[in-house]
Amino acid sequence: MIANFFNKSTPFGKLSVVILLSVVVITNVFSSEKITFNFIFFLEKIAILFFLLLNLFLIHFITKRNKLIKDNIYDMLLIVIFTAMFPDTTNFSPILISHFILLLAFRRIYSLRTSKSSKEKLFEGSLYIGIATIIYPWSILYLVMPYAAVISFNKRTVRNVILPIIGFICPIFIYGTYLFLTDSFKNLKNLFTFNFSFLNYNSLQLLIPLALILGFLIWTIFSTTIKIITVKNELKNSWYLILIHLILSVFILIPSPIKNGAEFLFLFFPLAVVFTNFLQLVNEKWFKDVFLYLFLAVAILRYFL
Q1: I want to staple 163 with a disulfide (CB 3.0 to 4.6 A). Which of 121, 122, 267, 284 is the partner?
Q2: pTM here?
């Protein structure tokens, strides 16, 4: 039933996703231990909801425009479920801002599959990654993405190799100049803070969703990848880029200085694309329902742990 409802991209389906995300954000607000009801508090939560909706529709735009998924909204539903599983992603943080800027970069990078304005896309995508790096330094790992796209979409030229570096350096140079003029270079040493302790992941609130996602990812990614790369279609080259995106998103979690679940926001995009493609390849409707209901159940259960 649920799989059939989200199997088509309809206005009512998208409205349902918006309502679900709003419920998740409101639930997270009232489940918080420290609540101070005032105008600033409500303004901040409304801004966060708007920001999350912007992220949600931007991801869907990227996936649909670049034909990473078919005409459905499984990706939107999955992102809402992931948000419920990791409620700290709904808090205002550098990760939230950095992720949005990275989505602007991904929009340009995935669109390299077409032959239009390749140089501009490489430069702009890398520029956004540079800005995201200033906000959340470990975003620098995504600088691999433009080069992965150059290889995947067969756009290997000397100019295309140089452009991402130039685009990335531009905001970094401007930021460095600002630090120099304000005598704040000492702040640079605090940029790349890291934490290799994973004790927080022992909490059932994080462990159960992680176990579910990891289990299904290992089960689905190999079969889905084999089916996609053995068939000549438009997704084949983009799929290699999705896999690189997923790997980089895992690597960005490892040194994350604060491990409270907010860092999993970087995984939402590639995970949603992988799971959506898996659901598209499944013929049994009952299995799709079981898959989605199981994820929904764990998302709800997380609030009672």
Answers
A1: 122
A2: 0.93
